[in-house]
Amino acid sequence: MRAAVLHEIGQEKLEVLDDVEAVGFGPGKVRLRIRATGLCHSDVSAMSGVLPQPAPFIPGHEGAGEVVDVGDGVSGLSAGDRVLVCWLPACGACPSCGRGQTQLCLAGFMNAGTPNFRRPGGDVFGFAGTGTFTEEVVVGAGCAVPIPDDVPFEIAALIGCGVTTGLGAAINTAKVEAGSSVAVIGCGGVGISTIQGARVQGAAQIVAVDPVASRREAALRFGATEAVAPDGLADAKQRITGGEGFDYVFEVVGKSATARTAYEHTRRGGTLCVVGAGAMDDHFQVNMFELFFDEKRILPSMYGGGDVLRSYERAIALWRAGRIDLESMITHRVRLEGINDALDQMRTGESLRTCIEL
To answer: Is the pTM of this model over 0.90?
Structure first.
């Protein structure tokens, strides 16, 4: 079958091959035929080494498709079922799951170290234990979440990661209050979803911050009340908050420099929500006096900061009601052969989300 493979960490291009086999099918597993997958910035971060991932590997974790076969012991799924891929399934038995913090369950991460593909030259890993830039993939049953018939595969794929992450940061983690002021730094797919979450929550002012003009323009269509380049954020803070700072600032880039900027533009007693996935050697620093004196809440948000199955259901309900716009987030569509063009478009900021159709 065909798949897009990264041979070594640090390479910028993927090779589309037709000699890849999905392996590992057996008890507790399902085989999926991928129909659509989104290109998320985390895929690029794994390729560059910012996020840890063994290689060679097949990127992609934001996918949807159909069940081809189910292994022994799998209940609730049958061949032909339409599903989205959950790259961080909950085991239901660990302390995090017991506390209701299923987004912190580590069971899914354990799968990342087990190859689920093979080529004639050896084993191939799937990113985050999945790997959706391929025609078929074998995953644990918990990674396959049934979706209603009225949800297109490309919409379900976005809900599988970027939409859930962004909406959840605003709704679950930060709990944005109606009438509040919000700034969102980084307006790719996750940032746009964060903007939509803040709008759903009733924020009065939502300032989108991004260096790319097309993304600033897009942010206005998705609910931002204004959009500025990074050098315009200080002026927006002065105009909108009288210099006090925003009630909520979301960092959706994954860099300590932008996290520091976000902290400095959050009001005393306000909330800095860190959504971007960054590198292990990139350290965010605050001094002990400002930490105490400013009483700013620093809240990281992992995969939307809540039960992902409930978050999927909520995203679908909001989409059906017309409260969030998911179709317009897909700015580009390519076949698997066009994956490297899609990567270039993401790196330059030209795309919000690219749908790869298989």
So the answer is: yes
